[in-house]
Amino acid sequence: MAQVGLNDLHFAILTVDSKDELTYEAPEPMVGAINATINPAVNTQELYADDQLWESVSALGKIDVEIETADLPLAIRAKILGNELKEGVLIEKATDVPPHVALGFKSLKSNGKYRYIWLLKGVAQPIAEDFATKKDNVEHKTPKVKFTFMARVHDGQWKHTADEESEEFLGAETWFDKVPGDTTAFNPEL
Questions:
Q1: CB 3.0-4.6 Å disulfide test: which of 17, 36, 84, 167 passes with 91?
Q2: Whole-prediction pTM value?
Q3: What are 24-76's pLDDT values in tens digits?
Q4: E strands along 18-99, which residues?
């Protein structure tokens, strides 16, 4: 099925990723999802013997992800980039350290059902911004955030994907309540 939509973009700050513990803050929405591009880098080594390809071994490298939204409020920018927000002013320093985050969203498929995705551990890069003067024709300038995703230390996982129409998938109603694998109990009432 072809993907024909994108909505319900969420992020969650990863607070602990160790062999014994995995915790995230509660997921928060990032409204106005326009695009999400996931591009895993795969490193391949090939071995030739007896005048032919004998073996091919691939390893997953970094995963480049870019999201585009209609708006990116300063409070969310501060959270995902490790910046300071003071009295309504976003303060960006060279020493800022972005936290590890998870990104979740759903994508409408051409069959009318949704594909659900969580990317589990990534770091945002400082945002490139593009400004232009207003002309006769309005041209929208929308924020794009680039991330580098990787596997978690806790379990080696980097992505969870589920299709709504799968009989085994029962988590559509709670998909954005917490990041998959979180070892803490989450209470949505808090």
A1: 84
A2: 0.87
A3: 999 999 989 999 999 999 888 999 999 999 999 988 899 999 999 999 999 99
A4: 22-24, 28-29, 33-49, 52-69, 84-86, 89-91
